[in-house]
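Letters spell out the chain; the tokens describe the backbone. To illustrate:

===
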Amino acid sequence: MDSSAQHPASSSRHHRPYFTDLQISMLSEKQRGKISASQEDKMKQLACSFIEGMGEKIGFPRRTVGTAQNLYHRFHLFFPRKDFNYFDVGLSAIYVSSKMHDTLKKPRELLAASYSIRLPEAASRSTGEVDLDRMDPATVEQDRQRLLAVERLMLETVCFNFNSRMCFPYVIKLGKYFGASKETTKMAWRLAADSHRTLVPLQYPPHVIALGGLYLAGLLSSFDPNSTPPRVDLQNTSTVHPLVTQLGNSGDWETKLQAKSADLEEIAHAVIDLLIQFCQHPIPSTHTSPRTPSSPSQSQTPTSLPRAQSTTLPLPYKPDVLMHLKIALRARREDAQGGDEERRRKRQKTDKNSSSSNGTLMQEFAGRVLGKEDETVRFLFGPPRLGGDVASPQ
């Protein structure tokens, strides 16, 4: 008898804590489909705002909210956006994150909180809460089953690895290490929190994100108040914040803290892009425009959107001022690296070295079908080159 008929096919999948720029670009493009990049960015921010609203409604700590946003971004590196409503994915991300950080809430509690955000007309006028007993039991049960189904897929994207480290403790410790003021450290903490609205946590470890938050806080504190409009002169040591001088240049701190100045700059660019987007298109409030004929059905789309618990800075800067900061950073980096040509060669070398890893990555998640398992999968907690502990076959 054919042995393949007796034993189902099996494979192994490795947990990948971080991804390269090229890997994220490849995976995002594949899952984006026909959705434009601007539409994708809008969906990301709507989902992150929904998660923020859930965190504020239930009272989750920042670590739970940040991890949930990171899980949402990771999920859509492997599953198409068109196949899932961002409410379902965001709710499942909150559920998984609450397990990771021991802030667990039952699915019914999460559904009740989500209904009060998505369907405010169903909430009590006195308490603002939704009584699930007064809602259609079939609808509630259907939503609960969908939450659990997406949760399973989300756990597969992290290979059932519940370890999660956050950048926030590092912001406090590194702020003290570099002698930053409380105001600067607070600003860095809020910028690090906002970084979870981007793909930065999928690319860099927590301590590097903390350093990036401190670096950007220094940059935003370096605007010359005497210039009109405000400008940052990175060559003027009398107006530049000390953190910019320390972290913006290579030194012994890179070896000691296992970070690179170039990585901090990339993080700064990502968060500045987010701030520019917020300036141009503010986060949706609880009052939105009327639904259009192209909007999804009411079972999936609320009549109002959550007002996120704002972690963004009350920046007085305009988009063109922040854009000037990006240009100044690029110009300084080009001078330090010998221009665009040298940087392009370095990036090509890095992409070439990671091409085999990219191929393995795409093969691991090729052919995933929702709700179907035709093989036994062994989920490994370590990256492919490191191996790692083996989780139970799923």
In short: Residues 18 and 202 are 5 Å apart (CA to CA).
